[in-house]
Amino acid sequence: MIQNPILRGFNPDPCILRAGDVYYIVVSSFQWLPGVRVYRSDNLTDWEHCTDLLTDQVDLRGNPKDCSVWAPQLSWHDGLFYLIYSDVKSTRRPFKDVHNYLITAPSINGPWSEPIYLNGSGFDPSLFHDEDGRKWLLNEIWDYRIPEGNKSSGIVMQEYDPRQRRLVGKPIKLFDGTALKKTEAPHIYKRNGYYYLVTAEGGTGSGHAVTVARSLQLEGPYEVDPHNPMLTSRDDPALPLQCAGHGSLVETPGGEWYMAHLCTRPVEGKYAILGRETALQQVYWDDEGWLRLSAGGNTPQIKVPAPRETLLTASGEKPASDKDSGRGRHALPYRFQDDFDGDVLQSEWNTLRMMPNESWCSLKKRPGYLRLTAGESPQSLFRHHLLAIRQRDVHFRAETCLDYAPYTYLQMAGLLLYLNEDNYLYAYISHEESQGKVLRLLRCAGDEVILEPEPVLLPNEGAVHLAVEVRGTEARFYCRAEEPHMKDHPAEAGWQAQFAAQPISFLSGGFTGNFVGIAAHDMQMHQGSYADFSNFHYEGYDQ
Q1: What's this model's pTM, rounded to 2 decimal places?
Q2: Which CATH number fits domain 335-540: 3.30.565.10, 2.30.40.10, 2.60.120.200, 3.40.47.10?
Q3: What 3-state DSSP class applies to 485?
Q4: Partners of 210 in the beta sheet?
Q5: Which of 30, 32, 133, 317 is deepest in the core (most CB within 10 A)?
Q6: Catalytic residue among 42, 140, 184, 399
């Protein structure tokens, strides 16, 4: 069986594709880099991270939260991969500053072309390859003139000329949307003479849904499924998978169909701390030619039948059966360990708005350690020197150890729970004039900023171990300091809980999910201020 969600933690807006015998899913990253994470599977059950796109093709510095890379779409035609994506620079009403681009490559691993600018009329672009060889760009159209509420006024289409590497002709309005409104995320699939338009509607929150419409002509008019919406959680707040929507389709070699879609698993039924995740549903075409869930109804299922056929992997080995499947690297429980003893960072790491480079993120300056040179404040949109991984579990523990010698309160380094620049929880080492080296806790929850008044005194020398343990909507931080004489026996120091338990329900909302990571900051921006991290470990407790 396929166990949902197949991609846990912040993995929204999935686009699924089969190229040969391999399935791929790409997801949105927003302000996090790398810009497009790519997962692969040989059987739709076991998924693993295989590569990242948009590493050096985008500059996200200065982009506000919840902007940047939206809803990538991956297609494969005539031996070439096509990636379409939005780089959103601003969403302040009434406008949206959206730049839509195309890159191509002969292999999922590249080399990828330089970005081709397409348009800026709306977000969620996708490319449809018609049977006659013509290519068509679709996107949501944003109408700033609409006075209140929904400004997503439907779906438009324009031809793309690969020889001229630009759009040609005039945009064609395909679809006005339904009463669910907020029509976006268009994909077109052709089957049995019909063009099927699959869109997201209802917004990306609790009202989210998948709408399907069809036409015998590409340019329309499109008839809406009489039982719309085809997939949604909007009518049952008790469902374990909420916010179901933003769907895309794939057909197996055996003729079975599946839909990838986003969902959430609200903690305590209210807080989407893990962000929007990716799930799979088995679907079929009914006698009238409409798309339906194999399980019946229109609500998402936790367990879904795997495809009947067995695909061969690239090595020629059969993938695991349903009975012995480990569900890939997204299986429970999830563990991540980086001891910073290699030449490159592990691929699970993410950064904000800029890729890591030797100038601030080095494995060479002190072998066996990761040296983070301090950047700007935790709220910077330009130089926030943070490395983080997705929170995948409702319950988990993360630990790190750092060697750090701050000499002013303007310098800090440590361990964060981080949703965005307005919402984070930061246990950090700093320096107080009258106390020396200390551990402090800063809570930033929107307009509410709380600095725990009593810092924890630390030895002026020696490494400091920090940990955070999260249980649902509560986090507790721990510290273990190494006195110089304990260097060979650090365990003697023992873990000590520090500060009060912290509610973390505020680390939810927006378009992303919570991350856990390490960082270094220096508001004076003195060159050379740094922290050396010797390890980072994350262990999920979910069952």
Answers
A1: 0.93
A2: 2.60.120.200
A3: helix
A4: 200, 231
A5: 30
A6: 184
